[in-house]
Amino acid sequence: MAKGDPGVTTRGRRAAPRTKRAATAGEPELVQLLTPEGERIESAIGPDGTEYRADFTDEEYRGLYRDLVLVRKLDAEATALQRQGELGLWASLLGQEAAQVGSGRALRTQDMAFPTYREHGVLYCRGIDPIMPLGLFRGVDQGGWDPNEFKFNMYTIVIGAQTLHATGYAMGVHMDGKTGTEDGEAVIAYFGDGATSQGDVNEAFVWASVFNAPLVFFCQNNQYAISEPLERQTRVPLYQRAGGFGFPGVRVDGNDVLASYAVTRHALDNARLGQGPSLIEAYTYRMGAHTTSDDPTRYRIASEVEAWQAKDPIARMKAFLTKQQIADESFFASVDEQARTESVHLRERVLAMPNPEPVTMFDHVYPNGSPELDEQRAQFSKYMESFEGSAH
Amino acid sequence: MSRIKEFNLPDLGEGLTEGEILAWLVKVGDVIELNQPIVEVETAKAAVEIPAKWAGQVRAIFHPEGTTVEVGTPIISIDTDPSAGPIEESTTDALPTPSAASLAAVEVAPAEGAVEPGLIGGPAPGGRTAVLVGYGPRTTAAKRRPRKGGVPAQASAAPVQAAPAPAAPAAPVSPAPVGNGNGQAGGLVLAKPPVRKLAKDLGVDLTTLTGSGPLGSITREDVQQAASATPAAEPLTVAAPATAAASFGADREQRIPVKGVRKLTAENMSRSAFTAPHVTEFLTVDVTRAMKALDRLRERREWRDVRVSPLLLVAKAVLLAVKRHPMVNSSWAGDEIVVKDYVNLGIAAATERGLIVPNIKDAGRLSLRELADAMTDLVQTAKAGKTSPANMSGGTLTITNVGVFGVDTGTPILPPGESAILAFGAVRELPWVHKGKVKPRLVTTLGLSFDHRIIDGELGSKFLRDIGDFLADPEAALLAWT
Questions:
Q1: What domains, with CATH codes, occur in chain B?
Q2: Strand-pair partners of A217
Q3: In this predicted complex, what is the ipTM?
Q4: What is the pTM of this model?
Q5: What does the pLDDT look like over B193-245, one tens digit per residue?
Q6: Is A286 a catalytic residue?
Q7: CA-CA distance, B181 to B195, in Å (whole number)?
């Protein structure tokens, strides 16, 4: 799905032309293009004076809505599968759909993404079959896809480690001379607010900065590092940390898919043009548990969750589409139906996932095997064949 | 047949073994949708809602609210095609009718594994044997494929296919983990994670303990002592099965989970036996005079209401002998030997919960009368299962009265941290050479084990000899030694 670049056309008939400064007293300073009530803001000014706009065709607006709903439904299905004993673990993205879909759709085909283990929405936008990570969480395979084919690296469980991988990758892109033009290549690294306390992430900031790496640090600040609230992680807003490392930082409303898109697209374009890294803090909220092994009711209060419920990314998009008559009830019903069908399909395929043959653990260790490994494999096969009813 | 599906409690969070049913959100007869929340379950990690795995009609609920259920245990059965009409007669017989009956059956005897009448052994829908309990060993056994050329296949499959469910995995789950160790109630509890794990395994509530570690933190020893003292709700391992006959599987073997006092005893004994080099010596003594002295003691008016047993004299003998050989009352601390000026005298007691060793604090300072009272109190408390953790800890030297079981002696194993333990055998009337003639005399055998790292043969022998001398002629020993 190709999205319009920021600032191409103005949709005067729908959006009240007004500009919102990011720094509004009392409110968190963030770039917002769609209010929680579904009101469209024409453009927003970032902390460094950058004006952010995002203009889409009706078809694209509906596409974004569809993405949000599908991503949420598939995520809910995975959570249910875990509760039913079909997955070992699941890290739900509930509440963070807009940050992921907005940034994911802002990526261009040539751009490379480095996810955490929660970027199911970005994965979806990259065109990867949502079944792919489920094998990992079901414990039947390594959850593998070809990172080069989809320009989407493997899920990284180690907190923040992927920011270093992304920095190295982006430095390589820069050294290969793939930056500096409008069709240049950019890299995006996803991480959470908790990861900003990691040494890895701070090292990545340093290296990306001094090597001018074409990298967008995309931090989904979902307010909790598992149970640790943001105020125990930082004394300054996270996006302001970028200044100390020597690159721009901006906070965007992570529940606003349009702003998330616009801000990410702008940062990626800067990167591909050779202007170096930037940090985006997508201000959002994890509506569910950290993972299925977590119980958020132990460390946060219901009123806080309710307050964020009112900022739901899908509800505001739906309100906007309805108000602007871009979509009607039959469209919403068809999206719901599609989501239901795809989630049932996903469930069926998860349940049908074959258990791996034990001998496959020797696969994919080295590209062309090794004598020692081959010997181990042969010994193990022989051992497995000593059982009755063995298939080999 | 396969339209009836049973849902097993899954591992809800990376390695959990059990969960507590907090609330059922559906009831028998309800028609439910796929992914509709059916039950709230609380695990050690989180309280979560479980969504229905299948759409259909609730046919039976196997565990009432408040029950702790092991992972892998069926908790609900769902008719996935209720519109297809009633289940055929033959099937209905083997299944619980959707009524309160199944629930009631569980409530009556949850600790015994909640065996559903009519379910066990009968092939359930889907061809699997219906068991409401039995996660773990049996599953493993069932999954293990036979080796080629080995025993016929049914041999290993038999325990699963054949009727009675081994009761071992059905041992009641410890109620302890609920609300435990979170530091919620009773303020902050300091304990390292392995200690918390141990406490959970042993069913010890950390909030009830006073820590002896740095900053008042609870140590492994604190937990172990509390575990042997706490009158835990879980019965001693062997008590679990309803009937002995039912507890043996088709292989005529019974598997008893090792936990509680048994686990603690095993750990302590193994540790001691394989770290402290034990030496055991024996001494057979004519205790006729001592028994007569006891009789005279009983006749005294001020001792009339006091329980006076031969063990009392043995305890006194040990305490006096320690005064003459203080090195035996010591413990090995790696690069130093800790010699104690006080004797916390342990008395091994067989209780319904197993072996426990409460001790009498600073017993060396007590008069004989005080010692007698302390011993009576100690034994009664132990038999009632009310020995406090404090009375279990800090023993320095122990007596084990194997004579009460009618045997002559033994080679006791040292309680960890102690250097000597005395076995007191049965007092028997035996032919004995007394004053140059063979006469029937009251004779007993003492067995002393000691830690050879600290106590050499000479010291150990002298100590045992002194105990024997006292028991041979207590009055003379008292006069000579005190």
A1: 4-162 (2.40.50.100), 193-263 (no CATH), 277-481 (3.30.559.10)
A2: A189, A279
A3: 0.74
A4: 0.56
A5: 889 888 888 878 888 888 888 888 899 888 888 877 644 333 333 333 334 44
A6: yes
A7: 10
